Amino acid sequence: MAIKNRIKELRIVKASDLRPNAKNWHDHTDRQRQVLRGLLDELGFAGAVLAREATKGRGKKKTVELELIDGHERAEIAGDDEIPVLVLDVTKAEADKLLATFDRVGQLAETNDEKLSDLASTIDAEIAVLQEFLDEMILAAPVKLGKLSTKPPPKMSWVLLGIPTVRFGEVAETVLELGQLDDVILETTIDE
Amino acid sequence: MNKTKTDNSNLPAKLALRRYFLQKYHATQPPDVLDCCQGDGTIWRRLRERFPVRTYWGVDKKQKRGRLKIDSVEILQQPGWRYDVIDVDTHGLPWKHWEALLPNLAGPASVFLTIGFVRTRGGSIGAEAREAMGLGGLKLPRGFQHRLHHVSLPYCLARAGDHGLEIVEAMEAPPSTNARYIGLHLRPRAV
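The joint structure predicted for all components is written out below.
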């Protein structure tokens, strides 16, 4: 099945000129706004908001506006700044379908906390609120602690035995046998 | 712009280890904490959000505004300190700190040790570990050092007993590629 491309064009538009969608169901929190603001300040726009052309008024007063489908918070933060907008060729009903499902589909993915933590550990954010957000990801990884044995080790007698490398073969078997004795630590090395 | 830099290397493991001991041994009485290798202080800043401490002193050999620049070994070597929690999140080996604190530990305490791995070539397990293993008088070939590092831990920990201390509990968090993370709760052995 060929998947349709519904993107009509990419426009750069003043964010405040975009019409909010009355059916937007996201209740944005202060925290989300702070983090998003941090991301936009640190990285800038790395994705476009989604909108469709919608008419307003009738007859000669009829005008065409861009109605948001996704990206209300970004547009709100941007205010009078220009932002990238993907204009979609979708009907109002299709726009509703997108509005209802766009973010929810992403939320269906499960988080691998360990991988996310590893990734977040490698990132240094310039902006404090963003670094705190990354720290939360780092801390979300489950950590299993293990018991460490504190059984006192045996008191050892050490023998450092030097053997000319070319003659090591003569004692190799004996050395291996010694290494198999309980509690014996056997290390061998070549003098470089 | 508020610039924040953190040393997050294996932060989840380090925090989980400390939380375990703080919950188990220091929940009823906020501890006096000595953070021997404070770095940027991320670990204890995080911990103190959830675990109250009576006093916290973070020191480091690296200069930082408002911080006493001192080798914390010098603090631990002096008798008379009273810390319930001693954190040695060092970049190398913690055995100098360990050997310094053992003779001066007067009461129960939790100790956290970050034990850096010894490099294959040219690395050294350190004089303290060699001494603990009974290898003090022996000049070791370079190739031995990193391999002996793996067996040196129980010998170093056993030094607690030589100072009349009992290891009540020892836990380990998952290691990173660079280090092991150990937590211990110690107390003077009953006479």
